[in-house]
């Protein structure tokens, strides 16, 4: 597990949410030479994007709760404790857009909004918790 998955405050993952996963995969594979691997998850399929054999991000279909949202790339920042971070967001004047929840076999995440309205995701990876 790379340092970005363990270091509090480090950008650790990028993810595309789109209604056209197949189109996005074709476009980015040709544009950047990315390879892609499908990972079935509960109720969905998730595409892991690889550059030079290294996992660098993912592509997923727009979830039900975000229907109507335009396709968007989002960033994840590693944190020591997602629940504490979500509470800190509110204390600092931001909002919690998606309450902390688990991603099976990955970790715990939340989507937050800063006081200016920008969204970002925070995550604590399972391996970080196990190795803490």
Question: Care to describe what's here?
Answer:
It contains 3 helices and 8 strands, in the order βαββββαβββα. It is α+β, with helices and mostly antiparallel strands and 132 residues long. The chain has a single domain, classed as 2,3-Dihydroxybiphenyl 1,2-Dioxygenase, domain 1, CATH 3.10.180.10. Strands 2-3-4-1-5-8-7-6 form an 8-stranded mixed sheet.
Uncertain parts: 128-132
Query: Radius of gyration, rounded?
Result: 15 Å
Shape: globular
What is the string of SSEs from the N terminus onward?
EHEEEEHEEEH
Fraction in helix: 10-25%
CATH C-level category: Alpha Beta
Largest sheet report: 8 strands, mixed
Strands of the widest sheet, in order across it, are 2-3-4-1-5-8-7-6
CATH topology, which one?
A: 2,3-Dihydroxybiphenyl 1,2-Dioxygenase, domain 1
Count of the domains: 1
Q: What's the rounded overall pLDDT mean?
A: 92
Task: Give the quaternary arrangement of the chains.
Answer: single chain
| Strand count | 8
